[in-house]
Design brief:
Keywords: ATP-binding, Nucleotide-binding, Transport. Pfam families: ABC_tran. It comes from Streptomyces xanthii. This is ABC transporter ATP-binding protein. With about 260 residues, the protein is of the alpha/beta class. About 40% of the residues lie in helices and about 25% in strands. The protein has eight helices and nine strands. It has a six-stranded mixed sheet, with helices on both faces. It has a three-stranded antiparallel sheet with strand order 2-1-4, with helices on one face. A hairpin with a 6-residue loop joins strand 8 and strand 9. The two termini are about 35 Å apart.
């Protein structure tokens, strides 16, 4: 793991002004039947401040690619460069249940080297950013699913990364909570000017959030097509323009699934 993280840090020098630069990346995993190719020749740039969604059917390699960008694994071929070490937010909140919301955020600040006497104030500021004022002392079991994901987002932001990687962070939430958090994420992205690479299999979620939607084919994952989303923010998931583009992308996604024989 240390070697992988060192490689990720070294790659920052060759990001060429991009939040991340992925060049001809392939990834294979060993299986009893031999190597299984999961990603095949992926090339993708994310510009500073850009919001990009990775879309595709289950098993197409979206999360694998995100893990490679995060430095949690190494590609079998190709290279990945990032502008500093990215922050990663998972589908599960992964909060420590024995810590309060504020202390979960402070832990990230501590690991970043923020002095102890500054952590409480910074954690409070981040809770305010995600609209959880007054939640500093609450335990994880006292928080709703949406509130837990807000704390997880605040903890990711505490890492002060320029690139935020999000792996289906709202997939387990109910539709109303997910809709609220879509709006909150858009607001935070606009306020912080972060670069975001967001994995989802929900087409409307991808269109609502992103400036650019990247569709991966079914395994092995390859970039099948990209769309620039020129719909002004804030968007609603029921907006006619969102629905229209979602229909177009869904048809392309279905075609990829049929082409590769996936259900």
């Amino acid at each position: 793991m240390a070697t992988i993280l060192a490689k990720a840090a070294d790659s920052a020098a060759v990001a060429d002004g991009k939040a991340t630069r992925i060049e001809h990346v392939s990834k294979s995993f060993a299986t009893p039947a031999g190597p299984q190719l999961v990603l095949d020749d992926i090339s993708l740039d994310v510009a500073p401040g850009e919001f990009v969604t990775l879309l595709g059917a289950s098993g197409c390699g979206k999360s694998t690619l995100l893990n490679l960008v995060a430095g949690l694994d190494a590609p079998s071929a190709g290279s990945i460069a990032t502008d500093g070490r990215p922050a990663l937010m998972f589908q599960e909140h992964a909060l420590f249940p024995w810590l309060t919301a504020g202390k979960n955020i402070e832990l990230a600040l501590k690991l970043r080297g923020v002095p102890k006497n500054e952590r409480r104030d910074r954690a409070e500021e981040l809770l305010e950013l995600v609209r959880l004022q007054g939640a500093y002392g609450k335990r994880v079991h006292e928080l709703s699913g949406g509130m837990r994901q807000r704390v997880a987002l605040a903890r990711a932001l505490a890492q002060d990364a320029r690139l935020l990687l999000m792996d289906e962070p709202f997939a387990a939430l109910d539709a109303i909570t997910r809709d609220v958090l879509h709006g909150e994420l858009t607001r935070i992205w606009e306020e912080t000017h972060l670069s975001v690479l967001f994995v989802t299999h929900n087409v409307r979620e991808a269109v609502r959030l992103a400036q650019r939607v990247v569709l991966l084919s079914s395994r092995p994952g390859r970039i099948a097509r990209e769309w620039t989303v020129d719909i002004p923010q804030p968007r609603r998931i029921e907006d006619p323009e969102v629905a229209e583009l979602s229909v177009e992308i869904t048809e392309q996604l279905r075609g990829e699934i049929r082409r590769h024989g996936k259900d």
